[in-house]
Model the fold of this input.
Amino acid sequence: MLDQIVDKYPDNDGVVYTDRNYRRSYREFRDDCNLFAKGLLSLGVQVGDNVAIWATNHQQWLINMFATAKIGSPMVTVNTNYKVFEVEYLLRQCDATTLILMRKNRDVDYVDIINQLCPELATSEPGKLNSEKFPFLKNIIFFGDEPAPAGMFHWDDINALGEKVSDEVLAARQSSLTINQVINIQYTSGTTGFPKGVMLTHYNLVNNGKAIGDCMAFTEKDRLCITVPFFHCFGMVLAIIASMTHGTTMVPIEYFNALKVMEAIQSEHCTAVHGVPT
Done:
């Protein structure tokens, strides 16, 4: 779907952040996704390998979503408010091979939590984690302005690896995939126990998102301000995929802030906004 939209609207604004230096046409955004996808291929990420991401609404989250879809590796969405025991449960339960994370969100330091859970990281080479708790977990990818902590790749390292992989290799992997393969695992909030991992396919996600975009009458001339978290189906499917399937511009906010939302709606001439009753 992303490739088809690029063919139709290559120069449309695809992703626009108003509070950071990231503004991409759909073609430029697809190029970013392809580069990171090739980097993951270079790391040895296979079809069916689960890639978890623990971050607020950064552009890296968006890029990873489409990169993992292109290589057939299910993306596991991690709630940005999770504490140590919740992350431990999720990583153990989903058998993630790769975890992408930012430094912290408000008072929760993601890097500290991962080092608590994986003390082996401090003496590991990036890509060679040998964790007692998480035997499948090998790659930790950090993004941010600072250097990667011990045992972790930096996001830029993965892009550098991607430069060495041909477009043909990515195209071959992408063309080998089917619409009914699982490409996303979302953990529902449990009221009587731990959350359950729900497995969603390309077919599920694209049709759900397209139906929402159809109901909202989205076109390539619309611009959606995304104020809700990417890790939830509201942000990921009803916002990102609803936009992408219609060539609509995405204007994300890292996390809800009323003033930033109003400024973004005004400066980017947004025609739609997602929100919740509060």
About this structure: The chain has a mean pLDDT of 96. The two ends are 33 Å apart (CA to CA). The chain has ten helices and 14 strands. The longest strand covers residues 182-187.
